[in-house]
Design goal:
Blueprint (H helix, E strand, L loop, with lengths): L17 H4 L10 E2 L10 H17 L4 H19 L6 E4 L2 H11 L7 E5 L8 H4 L7 E5 L6 H11 L4 E7 L11 H9 L4 E5 L18 E4 L12 E5 L44 H15 L3 H21 L16 E3 L6 H10 L2 E2 L1 E3 L2 E4 L7 H13 L2
Parallel strand pairs: 1-10, 3-4, 3-5, 5-6, 6-7
Antiparallel strand pairs: 2-8, 7-8, 9-12, 11-12
Length: 392
């Protein structure tokens, strides 16, 4: 399994966000892609890394295994750097649902415990918690107005008590685009001695987050949206001082302290978050994630966020000038998602019409959901505006 002379999947980092657009094959296609909240698109360096990894497997089998493993370790560090965590707090998971299920099933629940979350959470962050009812855990679903963040905080505050062990919440709501304040959520649950678990998939990669500075206990994300990475290469992070409150429930050789000691009868779990992993990782997907994170991490979180909200403003203005209605959102609650509607044209009809004109948006709760990325431009916003007007 020699690694002599082999360089695994190198990616040239970008120095400016303006460089990112030139690396996006999607911009050379007709129309404008504005559905990153559903699924992102792959930059060319990600595609190139995937192809090199496939070619390596085809031509060399496991000859370069040692370098693949080093590549995985670098990817783990890049993921940690992205969210203000330590590499020892990162575990790779296939998707958000899998990561949240690991935490939900692994937490050491006791009789009388409860978990609190919104009824409006995406199923990935709702069903794993609801499934705990079979174990006697009380699942408290609050039902505030979906687009009012203050009502959400108040409802969560009211629902939590001294037996609330976990408060589960999305950082950015998938259907409204409202961004929640992690520190405020953490303060609500920490006063009761519980933990905050955040689903961060709708902001991870484009908005700043810091696991330690914002007092977040655990986060989970998939890879296919704003990270511009392949599917099934997500990750979770659990603060080191809280990892002991979760058991490893889906275990295997990769979860152990000595993962290559295949003949050992001693099941000794890793001292790091790899205890939440089980067996062979999605090396192909992680190759793509490494390439995507290499591109994004070179630009500071503040610059990425500033650019995203600038682009958001351009598309919000374009939507309104084309005759769509979109609610005002306070700056601290803004994300890359914009929800808009027409007073007389059904949103479902408008989504279909725009798709035929090469504009990809999504339908959420009788509104169109517009989700541009960092590489989109004012020209893209104008193309969108004209397409909306021509659809009426």
């Amino acid at each position: 399994m020699t690694d002599s002379g082999f360089q695994p999947f190198p990616v040239q980092p970008i120095d400016d966000l303006a460089d990112l657009r030139g690396l996006m094959p999607v911009v050379r296609q007709p129309g404008v892609y504005l559905d990153h909240a559903a699924a992102g698109v792959l930059p060319q360096p990600v595609v190139d890394a995937l192809l090199r990894r496939i070619r390596s497997a085809a031509e060399s089998g496991v000859r370069h295994w040692n370098l693949w493993e080093r590549h995985v370790r670098r990817t783990r560090q890049l993921a940690a750097d992205l969210i203000g965590a330590d590499a020892e707090e990162i575990a790779f998971v296939p998707n958000t649902s899998a990561g949240i299920a690991l935490l939900a099933e692994g937490f050491r629940w006791r009789s009388g415990d409860n978990v609190v979350l919104s009824r409006h959470e995406f199923p990935s962050n709702r069903f794993p918690w609801m499934n705990l009812g079979r174990r006697g855990v009380q699942v408290r679903l609050v039902d505030p107005p979906a687009d009012d963040p203050e009502c959400l905080y108040e409802a969560l505050e009211t629902a939590c008590d001294e037996r609330t062990r976990i408060l589960a919440c999305s950082w950015v709501d998938y259907a409204t685009g409202i961004r929640r304040d992690p520190e405020r959520l953490a303060e609500i649950i920490h006063r009761r001695g519980g933990l905050l678990v955040l689903d961060i998939i709708q902001g991870c990669g484009v908005l700043p987050l810091h696991l330690h500075a914002q007092n977040i206990d655990a986060v989970v994300t998939g890879s296919r949206k704003w990270l511009l990475a392949p599917e099934a290469a997500g990750f979770l992070a659990v603060r080191r001082d809280q990892q002991g409150r979760f058991d490893a429930v889906c275990t295997g050789w990769a979860a152990t302290k000595h993962p290559l000691a295949f003949e050992s009868d001693n099941l000794q779990f890793s001292d790091t978050a790899t205890r939440f992993e089980s067996g062979m990782r999605n090396i192909l997907g992680l190759t793509g994630l490494h390439a995507a994170l290499t591109l994004l991490n070179r630009i500071s979180p503040e610059v990425r966020a500033e650019r995203l909200l600038e682009i958001r403003g351009l598309f919000l203005e374009a939507a309104r000038s084309a005759g769509l209605q979109a609610p005002d959102v306070s700056p601290q609650a803004q994300s890359g998602l914009i929800l808009a509607r027409h007073e007389s044209i059904p949103a479902s009809e408008l989504v279909r019409t725009l798709f035929r004109r090469g504009i990809t948006v999504n339908l959420k709760r009788d509104r169109i959901r517009i989700s541009p990325h960092l590489y989109n431009t004012a020209e893209d916003a104008d193309v969108f505006r004209r397409a909306v007007r021509d659809s009426m």
